[in-house]
User: What shape does this take?
Amino acid sequence: MSRWKIDRRKLVATLAGVAMTLVLCASSLVLAQEPQNEFKPMTEVPIETLPAMPLLYIAYAFVWVALLGYVFMLWQRVGRVERELAEVNEKLRSARR
Amino acid sequence: MRLANRVVPFLLLAAAAMFVRAPFMIEAAPIESTMGVIQKIFYFHVPSAAASFLGAFVCGIASAIYLWRRSRTADHLAVSGAELAVVFGLIVLVTGPLWARKAWGVWWQWDVRLTMTLVMWMIFVAYLLLRRFGGPGSEVLSAAVGVFGMALVPFIYVSVNYWRTIHPNTNVVRSLPPEMSEPFRWAMIAFMLLFAALLIVRTRLEAGRAALEEAYVSLED
Assistant: This one.
């Protein structure tokens, strides 16, 4: 029974890692422009509209969110490990007594 | 390590102050003539790439030391460097396509610089997955992966100068006019300070994990 025991947290972390890698690779393929295979004439010339500002804001917002998120996550992890270490050390001390 | 831990709050405070001021400096910087306002992504994109490369170097060099001397501190540094290479690399891989969409009309180009950066990022993701799920002995295998990941960095850097690509080459940084180079340097220093602080904290976490593992073993004995 214990042979096939699966650590859920590890499984979720693995799946998340694999999914993130796949999304990144797939998005580059999906978002890549298709080659043009025919030319069609048109009567009205449209105005080129691809505003830069939203892309710029998204980029800066992502940088801030990613960095703040990582700093927060790191602090949580350090806190958790140090708390657990203190608890185990306490158990060790009481076991030695 | 104690001294390094004491330095962390100052590094973080300085980085935070610089990050708060950076958008004002970037906003005041002139608009580039060919790409327009979207070129301002450069001020965070390039320092992120530099931090990612630095993480790769830290991981590669520490991994080589670990392979040579089996130093545990080097191993902890290698894991920290790899994780930072992934975090800052993700920023590069997200901000780059946003810039490319406006400047080139496409989100992604399979050119040498972009493809090699993606490959390097995936190598460090593989490194971290190996460390987490590789079981006992994965330190040695992942150290070799780390060295290979680092070896890609110089090729990525010079790729734009030797292969045909639409990515701006390395000369753009050297030729920046003062009104553009000032916010760029500012952002670069901010990223480096943050990198140093995160590296120290992440190494502390890794040392803590190793100590915890040892403590559990002692408790079982």
In short: The first helix of chain A runs from residue 8 to 31. The interface with chain B takes residues 10, 13-14, 17, 20-21, 24-25, 27-28, 31-33, 50, 52-53, 55-56, 58-60, 62-64, 66-67, 70-71, 74-75, 77-78, 81-82, 84-85, 88-89, 91-92, 95 of chain A (CB under 8 Å). Residues 2-32+52-96 of chain A form one domain. The mean pLDDT of chain A is 81.
